[in-house]
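Appendix C reproduces, verbatim, an entry submitted by the partner laboratory led by Prof. M.T., so that reviewers can inspect both the input and the predicted structure.
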Amino acid sequence: MTNLNVRDVLSAASAVINTPTKSIRDVLGIEDFDAFDVGLLSFSPALFLGRQAFKWFQGTKKQDQEKERMYREIIRKQQAAIVKQREINRELEKRERYHSSEGINQKKQIEELQKQVENLEEVINKLEELKERVA
């Protein structure tokens, strides 16, 4: 959107009055105004400026709404990432508990097997003693 001030509009109006073959668009060098804007500028520069201010306000409002939407989207994505990270952390904690409990079970099994080995060595020693007595 082209930014215009009152002085630009008034000087353009004077130029059009002095040279009627030029259009207001050519004098102001504007391309983004519709026919209604040009007619309004010719009829009442004050109303034209009011309309342009209203358009600017609407554009600003739309920009603010778009910013707000983008902020909400960013926050939503960050919250989703946080939830995903929490899920990953929970899964890792489960795995850690499982492996630590598995390690404890393995230690118990090792201790039990060592006791069995000791018992078997004791049985072998007793059998050897018995064999020596018998022989």
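Residues 63-134 form one domain. Additional entries are available on request from the coordinating office.
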